[in-house]
Amino acid sequence: MRDQADSYQEQFHRRWRHLRRARVRALAWLLDAPDLLDVNDPGWHGKVGTLGPVTPEVAQWLADVDHDPSALDAALGNRMYTRLGLYAEKLMAFYFEQRGILVAHGVQVRSSPNDTVGEFDFLLDAGPGGVEHVEFATKFYLLEGQAARRFDELVGPNLADTLGKKMRKIVDQQLELGRHPAARAIVPRPVVKAHALVKGWLFYPLGTWPAIAGISAQHCRGFWCALDEVHGLAGDAFLILPKLQWLPPFRAQSATWILNRAELHAELSAQFEVNQSPVLVAVVREQPGCVEEVERGFIVPNDWREKAAVRRMA
After folding, report:
1. I need a surface site. Which of 12, 67, 221, 272 has the fewest CB within 10 A?
2. Which residues partner with 292 through β-bridges?
3. Which domain of life is it from (predicted)?
4. What is the pLDDT of residue 116?
């Protein structure tokens, strides 16, 4: 585990400790977290965008929303979110709408009633001459192997995709949607620019922190290890994070489900017998009046490496 004095968790706690509500903390993370991708890397050919730093005005707005979350609660509705990506999109839609720049969100483009060409994540006001297409993604990938050739060794925890596959789809297909004749027929103004906005966390084999070209040097990061390697983790207080708590570093007044190392191993061993999905765990510290995340990482089944290697080579 790296020195925690300069970790992203410490930075986030210092900046946003005053926010109490989980939804507002998640929105603060989406706005303030470092971009996952290096927007200045020439390999992205200008296709990657950024929100830029959070201004004092936006910081105050977040504090106001935390004090009175009624508008945010109304925007999210009463539904129980199970998809982290949809939850993050709804939070971003609320932010863009509150800024007064949201033209449309989740606009499907069809070439016929039964043929969907694609979907615009966000269309934002770019002035009277056009709109800006923002393709938004919040992703979590584990580095499987020693290098990230074309980002295909950055693998999703459930082996469903890779960062390379995701970005090729975004750049080659989704960001070209505005050029499709069917899109031009339904978009209120021409799409004058398009880029990807990518937030997330990358996880590296325990004890390693490699630099990867094309990835922001400041990106949010954690570790991953196999179940039988949990003895090598620093700390002795752990929380299993539900999926909707994957975005910002965990912080709460209390947590009754804190596990020690032996309990963590036993709990995950039982889980992996019925469900092979890797589990995101926060290393936490207990302080007067709160429990705070110090570090985070995925614990994977003992055969995950072999399965990931086979999946990547397929």
Report:
1. 67
2. 251, 285
3. Bacteria
4. 84
pLDDT at 274 over 90: yes
Q: How far apart are CA 154 and CA 308, in angstroms?
A: 10
Q: What is the DSSP string of 139-205?
A: EEEEE-SS--GGGTTEE-TTSS-BHHHHHHHHHHTGGGGGGSHHHHTT-SS-EEEEEEEEEEEEEEE
**What interhelical angle do 22-32 and 56-67 show, nearest 10?**
170
Q: How far, in Å, are 80, 268, 296, 310 from residue 1 at the CA level?
A: 35, 21, 10, 28
pLDDT tens profile 226-247:
999 999 998 899 999 999 999 9
Distance CA 30, CA 201 (A): 12
pLDDT at 194: 96
Q: In whole angstroms, what is the distance from residue 166 CA to residue 176 CA? A: 15
Please state the φ and ψ torsions of residue 126, each to the nearest 5 degrees: -115, 25
φ, ψ (nearest 5 deg) of residue 2: -75, 170
DSSP for the chain reads: ---GGG-HHHHHHHHHTT---HHHHHHHHHHHSPPSB-TT-GGGTT-B----SPPHHHHHHHHHHHH--HHHHHHH-S-----HHHHHHHHHHHHHHHHT-EEEEEEEEEEETTEEEEEEEEEEE--TT-EEEEEEEEEEEEE-SS--GGGTTEE-TTSS-BHHHHHHHHHHTGGGGGGSHHHHTT-SS-EEEEEEEEEEEEEEETT-----TTB-TT-EEEEEEEGGGGGG-S-S-EEEPPGGGSSSPPEES--TT-B-HHHHHHHHHHHHHH----EEEEEEEEETTEEEEEEEEEEE-TTHHHHHHHHHH-
Stated length of the chain: 314
Give mean pLDDT, residues 74-82: 89
